[in-house]
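so im writing up the methods section and need the F-box domain-containing protein record in one place, dumping it here so i stop losing it
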Amino acid sequence: MSSMNEDDKLSRLPEDISSHILSLMPTKYAVRTSILSKRWRYTWMLVTNLDIDDLHPYHDTKVLSKFVHRVMESCKSSQIQLFRLNLYNKYVKRSSVSRWINKAVRLNVCEVEIQYGPFELPLRLCTCKTLTKLTIDNGNLEYAILECPYPVNLPCVKTLEIFLRRNPFVNAFKLISGCPILERLSLEIMWCQGEEDYVFHIPTLKRLELRLVRCTSFINKIVLNLPNLEYLFVGDELESLFVMEDLSSLVEASISLYRITNDHLFVELLKAIKGVESLSIENPKGITDSGSLSDEDVLLGVALPIFQRMKHMEFKGVWRPRLILQLLESCPNLKHLYIEAVLELFWIEAKIVPSCMLTNLTTIKYSSFNGRENEIHFLEYMKQRSLAMSSMNEDDRLSRLPDDISSHILSLMPTKYAVRTSILSKRWRYSWMFVTNLDFDDIHPYHSKNVLLEFVDRVMECCKSSQIHSFRLNFSNEYVKRSSVSSWIDKAVRLNACEVDIQVRRFELPLSLFTCKTLTKLRIDHQNPADAVWECSCPVNLPCLKTLDIAVRTNPLMNAFKIISGSPVLESLSLEVTFCPDEEDYIFNIPTLKRLKLRLVQCSAAINKNLEYLFVGGKLGPRFVMKDLSSLVEASISFHSITYDHLFVELLYAIKGVESLSIEGVLFTPPVLQNTKRLEFKGVWNCPCPGVILQFLESCPELKYLCIEMLEYFEWTEPGLVPTCMLTNLTTIKLSTFNGREDEIRFLEYMLENAEALKTVSITCENIRIEDAEKRLSKIQRASRDCEIYFIGK
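--- predicted struct ---
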C-alpha cells in the first residue's frame, strides 16, 4: 500500500484545507473519513460546520444520541460556523438537545439551526455573543411550542427564522426585541388565539417574511414601522389588517395567499405596499373560485391603488384574464410582466387597453401555455396591444438565427413545446413547421382526447420539412382511434421519416410503412398487452432498416418475421412474443445481424453467425439451436421461469464462447466457459446461491471481473475446492447490496481468503453503516496483498 499512498494527493493537503473540505459534508460522512488512514483519523474534529440529522444510517435514538454526544465532545475547533440539528424522525431527550446547543455556544458558534420538536432555549444560547443567524423550526405542528424563559441579548444576530404555534409575544417577540441589529426576519405563527396587534418596530430590518395561519378569529392589526425594509413577503392566510407606518425603503414585495377571510383585507394590503417597484402575487383561492369574487365585479369593484413605481410584476398560479388587465391598469409604468397561467374561460376582449401596454411594457413571459383557444386569444391581445414590445424584438438575438438552426433547436424538444414558440413573434410563428423531429405524447398539458387529436392532426398537416428524422407517438394514457394513428404514420412516411417509434394501446399500420425507402429504425410497442395484436398484410420491403424493436401477441411468423425478412441490412433486432399457441420454430438467418434481444414463449429458435450480442429473457420454453456464433462476444440471460432444466444447460453450451456473461434467475450447473472474463449475477440470489456462484466460477477459469447484485438469506457451507480463476485471474469483485448479515460476511471472508490475484473489492452498504461494515471485514485475512476494499454508502 505504500505505492498507493505516494499518489494520495488529498492526504498531503494542509490540515486547514482538509478540515474545510470535510466541513462541506454532513458530519456523519465527515466522521467516516477517520478510518481512511492515520493521517485522517482526527481531521474531522477540526471541522467548522456540524450538520447532524436523524436519517439513515442511525438505527435507533440511542445510537444517534451517542454519536452526537461523541462529536460534540471531540470537536476541537476554536469556532464553528454552523451548528445544525435536524431531528424530525426520532424523539431525542430535551436535555440532550439543550446540552448540545450549549456545547455549540461554547465553541463560539455563528449560525444555529434547530429543527426539532418542543424544547426550551438554553440560557447560553439566549445570550450568545458570536451568534449571527438563528433558525428554529419545531416541525411537529401538534406540539410546536417554543419556550424562551430567559432574558435575551443577542448583539450580533442579523438573521432570525422562527416557527411557533402560539404565544408569539412571550417567545418569538422576546427573541426579536433582543436582537438590536436584526436585518432579516422570517416568522411563522400557527393557530394563535388572542386579539393582540403585532407591532414590528425594527429600524435595522431589511427583509421580512410573515406566514400567519389562523392567528385569531378577531381581525387584528399588523403594524409595520420599518424604515429600512427593502423586501416584504406575506403568505398563507390573510386575516389581519396591515397598517404601514413607515415603509419608505420598500422595493420588492411578494404575496402568496391560499385563503382570504375578508376581501377588503387583500385590497388594503395592496394599498399598503403601493410604493414597491417589483411585486409577485400568487392568486388567492377566493379570487378564482366561485365565491367571494366574480367575473363581473372583480375585487368587489373596489378601486385598486396606483402602483406608480412598479416596473416588474409576476402573476403566479392561475388567473382570470380580466383581473390581470385590471391590475395592469394600476401599473402605468410597468415594463416586465410574468404570467404563469390563465383560467380556461371564454375570452371577451377588453374595451380599454391598460396604459402601460401602450407606453412601457417591453417584456411578457407566459410559462404554462397549453394551446387552448382562450390562451391564444389572450396572448394575441397582449402582443398586439403592447406597442412598446417592438423595441424588445430588436435585441432578440435568437430570432436572428438562420431558419435551419432555429428549426434544429426546436427539433430537440417535444413537439408540443416547439409549437408554443409560434406566439413569440411573427418571426417565430411558422418556425416550428420545419422541425425534423416530431415527438408526441399524451401527458400534460392536453386536457382531453379531442384536443390531443386536433393538435396532432394540425401539426402533421402543417409540417413543411422535406424529411423528418424521427417520428414518435407515445400514447400510454389515451385510447386513440386506429384510423387516426394510421393516418399520422402514413403522413410521416410521406415526409420521408428515418425513425418511427409507435407506443400506443391499439393501432393499424398503414401499407406505406412496409415499403418505406427511408426508414432506418422502427419500434412497435403496444402499451396494452391484452390488445397487442397488429397485422402485416402486405409484402415488406425496407431496404434501409437497421434497427427493429417489436412486440407481437400472436402469429409472429405472419407479422414480425414478415418485417424481419423484408429488412436485408438489419443489424439490431429486439423481439418479444407474448403468447404463441402453436409450436412454430423461429429461424433467425440474418447474416447482417449484430445485436439480438429475444423474449420468446413456447417456441424454438435457431440463430446463426455474425452476432456479437445476445439477450434471452422471459420464460425459457424454446430450445435454442446455435448454428454459428463464432462472433458472439457478450450475452445476457434473464428468465422468470424455466420449463425444462436441460434447456438452460443447452443454451449455456450454445453461448459458451462469450467473453462477458450476465445471468438472472438460474440455478443450474454451467458448462466450461473458457473465454468468459466478465460475469454478472443480476437480481436477488438466494439459497443455494453461493454454491451456484462458485460453480460458475469453477466453470470460468479465465474470469477477471465478478459482480453480484444481492445475496439473499442462505446457509453458508464452505466448499472443499477453490475455483481455478480465484487462484490465478480474478482481480475485481463487486457486491452491489451488502446488509451485514453473517452469511454474507462468511461468503466474503471465503472470497478474500482464497482469491490470490484480487486487487479491488467494491461493497455497497444497504442497511448497515459503513463504519460497522469496515470494522467487521477489515479483520479478515486476505490472500492477496494488493487487495483494497472500497465501501460505498447509500
